[in-house]
Write a structure and sequence with these properties.
This protein is mainly α. The chain has 2 helices and no strands. 91% of the residues lie in helices and 0% in strands. The chain is rod-shaped and about 60 Å long.
Length: 69
């Protein structure tokens, strides 16, 4: 996990925002809903990426303590 995932998640969120706005402006409720779903998926992925990064940091901290670094 890392920067690439964070960039990908942000891109998906922005794509969702654009879909939602276009759907709203054109009266296309399906596109608007699809944009909202894209944003929700991006938010979940972002939270999972952050959680994975924290776990990785924790593992590294334990490893450093065990190896005396």
């Amino acid at each position: 996990m890392g920067l690439d995932d964070k960039i990908s998640n942000k891109a998906e969120d922005l794509k969702g925002q654009a879909k939602e706005k276009v759907g709203s402006a054109t009266g296309n409720s399906d596109l608007e809903s699809e944009g909202q779903v894209d944003q929700a998926v991006a938010a979940v992925k972002d939270h999972l990426t952050n959680a994975a990064d924290k776990v990785k940091d924790g593992v590294e901290a334990v490893k450093d303590k065990l190896t005396g670094k």
